[in-house]
Write a structure and sequence with these properties.
Helix 10 runs antiparallel to helix 14. The chain has one domain: Growth Hormone, Chain: A. By secondary structure, the protein is an all-alpha fold. It has 16 helices and no strands.
Length: 406
């Protein structure tokens, strides 16, 4: 009986990770559809409003490294569980104020929880699943992440806002999944018995030193920085871009949601394809080419073509995202995965904050997003060369030389 419970636990943990992935992003991605309402009611500029969307990303960047490091010390299940509670508290508090400063402060609290959760999901996956299946496992829990982007984008304006009639009501609605995810995590998720990384068992210095000396992890971090520059600029300002082209706010949210909707089958299928091929690099540089073409096309597209452009970006961006998230598991020893993921996540998400703010600033100054799209073209072309410079970690290659010896 004990063995049966142990064998079913990885999938129970995976289910909890999917729910937590949804809950940690839904409170953030409900902001772009109501950005024009927040700007008007709070008397903000577009650049200032972007902080209500990227504030959690900024905190994720700040807390990701210590959050992952703490997970390596006390266990990923406990660290992610603490983060889940912080997310729920911060998301709920956002529904209780109309003061811009307080709203931003509560948004930062929610973001601190992200910094505890995100790197430790990768850590928990590395402990429950074989290393060579890390990409497939990451793809499965990424379904929750994609749903946490797609559903708020699709239904916040046409469904949630008409019911609540206030942005505070929208924030209250999207705090409910966070509360449910925190409760289910502590009730269901368990640490694997083979995870021997517990508090006090390893000294702090060597683990951190191994990670920061890994040049390949730094290259992945730069790649993730540029990926998120594109990702958060695109998702943050796509609804407004579509409204500039004549869409209503409800239609703009629906079209934008195509981007994460197509990401759901993408994050399931592409890691399996990468596993069968035994390759990773093509799933990094090919998407970069597609994304550069899509950003250029976004300048000239009409509403009819926007559905196709959103789908192109959704497939390409989410293919690259799930590949990047699996790389720490393949590059470092299991006991260092949390710290390595924290490094990549912290540096990477700074790109999202900077990109979304620049997009908002360009919109404030020019009244258009064309220049922002051209910047995304340049970013995407640059990531092609960064991806080609990475070592291949697929099973067709001997990746033992990539890992840092203990």
């Amino acid at each position: 009986m004990q063995q049966k419970r142990e064998s079913s636990m990885p999938w129970a943990v995976m289910l909890c990770a999917c729910l937590l992935g949804f809950a940690m992003w839904a409170p953030s991605y409900c902001v772009p559809p109501i950005e024009h309402i927040l700007k008007l009611e709070l008397n903000l500029t577009h650049a200032e409003t972007s902080l209500l969307y990227t504030g959690p990303i900024l905190m994720l960047a700040a807390i990701g490294i210590p959050g992952g490091f703490i997970g390596d010390r006390i266990g990923a299940r406990k660290a992610a569980g603490i983060g889940a509670i912080i997310i729920a508290v911060g998301a709920l508090l956002r529904s209780m104020t109309s003061n811009p400063s307080a709203l931003l402060a509560y948004t930062f609290i929610y973001g601190i929880g992200l910094g505890w959760v995100f790197p430790n999901l990768a850590k928990l996956i590395s402990a429950w699943f074989p290393r060579d299946k890390a990409g497939v496992a990451t793809g499965i829990y990424s379904v929750g992440i994609m749903a946490g982007v797609a559903i708020p984008m699709a239904i916040t304006m046409p469904v949630v806002f008409p019911i609540t009639n206030t942005f505070q009501g929208v924030f209250l609605f999207w705090s409910i999944p966070a509360i449910a995810a925190a409760a289910s995590w502590w009730i269901i998720a368990k640490e694997p018995q083979r995870n021997k990384v517990v508090s006090g068992t390893r000294s702090v210095g060597p683990s951190f030193q191994r990670v920061i000396k890994n040049k390949h992890l730094w290259l992945v971090s730069v790649l993730f920085f540029m990926h998120n520059f594109f990702f958060f600029t695109w998702t943050g300002w796509a609804p407004h871009l579509l409204m500039l082209k004549g869409a209503t706010d409800r239609l703009a949210g629906l079209i934008t949601s195509i981007f994460p909707w197509v990401g759901i089958p993408t994050v399931i299928f592409m890691p399996r394809l990468a596993y069968k091929m035994g390759l990773r690099k093509p799933f990094l540089w090919v998407p970069a080419i597609v994304m550069s073409l899509a950003a250029l096309g976004a300048i000239y597209m009409n509403l009819a073509a926007s559905w196709l452009v959103m789908a192109m970006v959704g497939i390409a961006s989410n293919t690259r995202l799930v590949t990047i998230l699996a790389l720490p598991v393949e590059m470092v020893p299991e006991e260092d995965v949390g710290t390595a993921s924290g490094l990549i996540i912290s540096i990477g998400h700074l790109g999202g904050v900077i990109g979304a703010w620049i997009g908002g600033r360009i919109l404030d100054v020019t009244g258009s997003l064309d220049i922002a799209m051209l910047i995304l073209v340049g970013i995407s072309v640059s990531t092609v060369f960064i991806a080609l410079g990475l070592p291949e970690t697929g099973r067709k290659f001997d990746d033992s030389r990539l890992r840092i010896s203990e």
